[in-house]
Amino acid sequence: MDDQRYERSARACKACHASKMRCDLMTVGAPCTRCQRRGFSSCEPFPSRRGFQDQNGRAPKRQRKSPGPKEVDARGDGSKKHFNGESWEKIIDLVQKQKSSKIDKSTLIFLGESSPLYHLLNTQKERGHTALAGGTSTSEAVSELSEYLQLPKRPTLEALFQSYFETVHPFYPIINRVWFASLYRESKLPFLLSHAVCFAACFHCPMVTIESGGFGSRAEAKSYFYSRAKYIFDRDYERDKIVVIIACLLLSFWVGEPGDAWNSRAWVSLALTMAEDLGMHRTTARANMSTADKCQLRVLWWCLCSRDLITSCTLGRPPRVFFGRCNVEPLTERDLDFDTDPGEPIFAYRKEESAYYHAEASRLTLLMHDVVMPRLEPKGAGNTGYDNVQNQWNEFAKWKRNIPDQVNWDKHGNSMFALCLQIMYLHHTIYIFRPNSISDLSGDDQSLDKSLSAAAEIVLAANKLSMLSIARIPQDIFACLFMAMVVLALESKSSESNTSAGICATQLEICKHILSQAEGHWDHAVWIIKLFDRLKEPKQEDPQSEVKEFPGPLTPALDSYYSDFESSLADSFVPEANELYKIIFGN
User: Fold this and answer.
1) How far apart, in Å, are the Cα atoms of 50 and each of 10, 15, 46?
2) Can you give the residue ranges of the Zn(2)-C6 fungal-type domain (predicted)?
3) CA angle 125, 127, 129 (to 5 degrees)
């Protein structure tokens, strides 16, 4: 047998170091053999903290041993990272070089006014958005773990992609489809994004697609893609921050258990924190970026804000965004022009009304923020008096009068975009007129009538949407339906009129029927149905028996809840301080 000797390099390149593979960079020169095989043009030595040593005079090489089984380090590189001051030095270097090239959105970083670097660089007339080197994707490193991160076979994968771009993307147009299609053809899609897209698609795709991937249920498919996306995320393999933010928004569809740290709010909050690090909350008018990148960042930011507001209202938490610190431009219909059609069915085709929908939804989000924030003051100390409520309602009425015809629900009653916009408007109307607590209720309170009327209209609009396609209804619209159900339940219990109570009970049954169809498409649907079924039952003499049989997450607050049903349900309108959410989410 020939005496085989392995020529091992004294230093590995960055790609081989990240993959924990042997490298022959110092022997054959750049690019190394592995980088040549994988088509990488950039092959740089990984910097060593021990310095470079000339090893030409070392002892004779040992005979190469037969390699044994190699285990993959489950921790990845993320567990071995240390702070390196060079990363911030690169910002100074980039500014001092005064490069005239445009900033790539994947290398974007934002220096806020309170940062010492802001004042230092202000002397060189560089502030706000700037570029930071090293923001490239490291999906090639993840490919070494392909046995754990395998995607479905091509037919199933393309079916999931098509479902995503047909159902999710129209209401969250956060991906540049031409860019996505190009990377897919070249088999270079980031693994994190691929799994996040497949995860979101599992909420809306046909069951035949789920079964073709070898999954027995939607829940199994969603758990499969979510766990793999989070695996990649936890190890910080993906270095393109825009990709990470997009993935976080899609992973916010994950409901999890009531006590889980990773839930919808956690993912949204993380995405917004990273977005602020990139300066998405500030104007990009002076940033040296391409128009398409500026538009995509604005669309991504406003989608995050809308998702933040809806999830905060649904779960009774304060919104993560405070618009007093933001001066980003409002969305316009032209901002969606960056998302052009790739021309293939699996990437779908954009509809004209989608641009109008998102422009109006961003304005509605801004108005709703002004409604929610005062109501988060402790013990209702916020400015929610009659005059302020009336001013808020006038702003909403003004917005409604100026809705473009393309998304006007009075003119296009069967348009998916128009109906979704109507439901969001009615949901926000409920928040304007809902009482702060049970003490605010009175028999002649006209504001309650407006809340009840808005809830009834939500039921009608949601019923239309369910008849068009239950699988295409966006996640946030189901949350609006939940708020309408709370209003109807309150009225059915407190109304002195049997007729009014009967109508509300009928509308509640319609809502439950819609949610029963949505099981699998919206993960909150199951426990909400059980919750309202339980609320219809008469009070039991033994509250402890109710705790044992309650279908959802339990806390001791259930006793007080059943002892004073109307007060607890009325307080469900008040984020942060209500027994209903304490019962449901265990907080």
Assistant:
1) 12, 19, 12
2) 12-43
3) 135
For the chain, list the domains and their CATH numbers.
Answer: 1-49 (4.10.240), 139-338 (no CATH), 352-585 (no CATH)
Strands 108-111 and 128-131: antiparallel
The pLDDT tens digits for 162-184 are 999 999 999 999 999 999 999 99
Residues of the chain short of pLDDT 50, as ranges, are: 1-9, 51-88, 91, 95-96, 98-99, 110-115, 117-143, 437-445, 542-543, 545-587
Helices and strands, number each (H, E), in the chain: 25, 2
Rounded Cα distance between 321 and 237, Å, is 27
User: Are 144 and 74 spatial neighbours (Cβ–Cβ below 8 Å)?
Assistant: no
Nearest to 184 by CA among 169, 162, 214, 207: 162
| Distance separating alpha carbons of residues 364 and 385, to the nearest angstrom | 21
Report the alpha-carbon distance of residue 149 to residue 231 in Å, rounded: 9
Residue 63: Cβ within 10 Å count: 9
Q: Specify which residues 69 forms β-bridges with.
A: none
Tell me the chain's radius of gyration from C-alpha atoms.
27
Please name the residue that has the structure tokens 């669309």: 299
Does this model's pTM top 0.90? no
What is the spatial distance between Cα 454 and Cα 459, in angstroms, rounded to a whole number? 9
Summarised one tens digit per residue, pLDDT across range 231-272 is 889 888 888 999 999 999 999 999 877 678 898 999 999 999
